[in-house]
Amino acid sequence: xxxxxxxxxxxxxxxxxxxxxxxxxxxxxxIAWLLTRNLNKVPDKKQSAVExxxxxxxxxxxxxxxxxxxxxxxxxGTLAIFILLMNFAGLVGATVPTEDISVTAGLAVITFFLIxxxxxxxxxxxxxxxxxxxxxxxxxxxxxxxxxxxxxSLCLRLFGNMTAGGVVLGLVYKGMGHFAFVVPxxxxxxxxxxxxxxxxxxxxxxxxxxxxxxxxx
Length: 217
Hints:
Oligomer: single chain
Distance between the termini: 40 Å
Subcellular location: Cell membrane; Membrane
Organism: Clostridium neuense
InterPro entries: ATP_syn_F0_a_bact/chloroplast, ATP_synth_F0_asu, F0_ATP_A_sf
Helix content: over 70%
Low-confidence stretches: none
Number of helices: 6
Function: Key component of the proton channel; it plays a direct role in the translocation of protons across the membrane.
Keywords: ATP synthesis, Cell membrane, CF(0), Hydrogen ion transport, Ion transport, Membrane, Transmembrane, Transmembrane helix, Transport
């Protein structure tokens, strides 16, 4: 794993990974703006490709959460694309943001508050808090602990898997020296593309499942 270095000299508050994360945010916003300009009733090739992606996200949310959770389609789609691009950053030689635990922790915290807010909105404060005592009151401490272990699990799973890949690739580059431009190609295909895509799917699926389960307890 590449050592996390400050982005601006001695200013310790921003790491390179966070800087790359911000760059990806800007890229996603720019691409979304470019792809959604001048939409037509009869789609061209560009619009057709966008509609395929949107329809896939729509089906993903409806099949796993239900029609009543359609409001989460924009969030789930943005989360999936955002995590995927961050995990793929290593393919262009950039620092992978998800190898920085502050990045994965930020995503997990957002997910945690969204889960709790959805449960409160759908059930009200009284039912939200009484749900901690179900199915038996003595399970209250365990249920409370479970709520807080969810974001911790999301954070550490994404961080741990991406960091492991970064460590392996770093060792290969270091060990192969001048010949490292050949060997890492299949490794990048596995750790960046396959594992990066898989971790995105896991994070997004667990997010959807936890939103639905917590709201319906």
